[in-house]
Amino acid sequence: xxxxxxxxxxxxxxxxxxxxxxxxxxxxxxxxxxxxxxxxxxxxxxxxxxxxxxxxxxxxxxxxxxxxxxxxxxxxxxxxxxxxxxxxxxxxxxxxxxxxxxxxxxxxxxxxxxxxxxxxxxxxxxxxxxxxxxxxxxxxxxxxxxxxxxxxxxxxxxxxxxxxxxxxxxxxxxxxxxxxxxxxxxxxxxxxxxxxxxxxxxxxxxxxxxxxxxxxxxxxxxxxxxxxxxxxxxxxxxxxxxxxxxxxxxxxxxxxxxxxxxxxxxxxxxxxxxxxxxxxxxxxxxxxxxxxxxxxxxxxxxxxxxxxxxxxxxxxxxxxxxxxxxxxxxxxxxxxxxxxxxxxxxxxxxxxxxxxxxxxxxxxxxxxxxxxx
Length: 373
Hints:
Elements: H1 6-36, H2 40-48, H3 50-65, H4 73-109, H5 118-148, H6 151-162, H7 164-174, H8 176-191, E1 199-202, E2 205-212, E3 216-221, E4 226-230, H9 233-236, E5 240-241, E6 249-257, H10 263-276, E7 285-292, E8 297-305, H11 308-329, H12 368-372
Antiparallel strand pairs: 1-2, 1-5, 2-3, 3-4, 6-8, 7-8
Helix pairs in contact: 1-2, 1-3, 2-4, 3-4, 4-5, 5-8, 10-11
């Protein structure tokens, strides 16, 4: 091997080994903390930042050792620029992973699985949106920094700024929808109209907010369908948010029964059902006659639960057991069709069947008006 390449190879190899050893020591420290504590921070750091941290440390060590490698000025200049671009990319990767660690820690601290999860859902939604915004900002800054490391790009930048006004108009017209969604995402972040796991009704579809991004919102319908809506839709349209103030939900049970149903007995049965159900939160229940049609009486019951899934199951349970109660104890109180049979004053004549085959009228017989004459 040529002696001129021994020193650079040894210098850069030592830098890689030292960087790898330092990264390995930090990883062992994180692993030790993870074994001692069940905190989400150490688990998330070890899972998300291991590779990005190792690559960042190695690239930084190479960049620091390059001037002492004994290479020519041209090779040092090219190598420094390449390593600088690699360092920008690795630092961007590491920062994105650290934002994910922050999200994991926040989500673990504020659990949305509890009954009263309004504050947890609010903070989780804000953290998710802030992370996405920060990632977008970091990418823009990293790309701008990488471009500015190119000497020719600096001279082009002056002439580029002259046409910035025209370019901004063109970009604004071309990306009007995207920019509108981004601004809508910032508006939702600040005003807090929806949160992750909110129970909403959009376009007559009942569902829960499953995901919120800077450009769209995913609503999980009751049958596990996913409705993908632009985030600007929630700032320009009317929708229902059942858990805007609290996670507690009041649901309704509507029955169409006959007018002869004993309301007080039906109300007592519903009270017994909600008291025996573990899905009822023990706060609200009521049974009322809310309407009457020409054939039925409309009875509505309201029941409350700690959250939307429990309330849905409670409504189905109460509805089913009330119908079973009516079938077993008051079958006559179920809806029925009434018809009044009135005897006609004019007798109805049936066509004559005097044909030989016994089918159809006998065309040989005289018409009715001829018989009367």
